[in-house]
Amino acid sequence: MAMRVHLDGDLITTEAEFHSALRDASGIDWYGGNLDALFDLLVGVVDPPIELHWTSAERSRAAIGERFDRIVTVILDAVAERGADKLRFTLEAGQ
User: Fold this and answer.
1) Whole-number pLDDT of residue 2
2) How many Å apart are CA 57 and CA 9, to the nearest integer?
3) Which of 64, 62, 94, 89 is nearest to 78 (CA)?
4) Residue 39 and residue 77: Cα distance in Å, rounded?
5) Long-range contacts of range 41-47, CB-CB < 8 Å, 24 or more positions apart?
6) What are the tens digits of pLDDT across the range 2-45?
7) Which of 39, 48, 47, 52 is nearest to 81 (CA)?
8) What would the DSSP string read from start to end of the chain?
9) What is the maximum span of the chain, computed from C-alpha positions, in angstroms?
10) Measured between alpha carbons, how far is 52 from 22 in angstroms, rounded to an integer?
């Protein structure tokens, strides 16, 4: 079964909220809620395909700040490691 995650930038305003949304979507209660755990979750814990779609991403970035860029970098590293056919990540700036 695919893991499809919609991240709403209007609702994701902290790094903790981001990790909570991934924990809920993955069903992995023991997900660590940090950047190392994020990489592990996307590369080795959840079976592909995985789709992450972040809408209103500019709102999350404005609220989260520099940590938003770190989150995105980790996700892109996971895409590079796992392959874009198994892990798809899209960002939408907003309306």
Assistant:
1) 79
2) 5
3) 89
4) 8
5) 42/75, 42/78, 42/82, 42/87, 43/78, 43/81, 43/82, 46/3, 47/1, 47/3
6) 789 999 999 999 999 999 999 998 999 999 999 999 999 999 99
7) 39
8) --EEEEEETTT--SHHHHHHHHHHHHT-TT---SHHHHHHIIIIISPSPEEEEEESHHHHHHHHTHHHHHHHHHHHHHHHHH-TTTEEEEE----
9) 35
10) 9
Q: If you search the block for the tokens 């790094």, which residue do you land on?
A: 15
Q: Which amino acid is at 80?
A: A
> What is the per-residue pLDDT across 52-93, written as a single tens digit (0 to 9) for each?
999 999 999 999 999 999 999 999 999 999 999 999 999 998
Nearest to 95 by CA among 58, 60, 67: 58
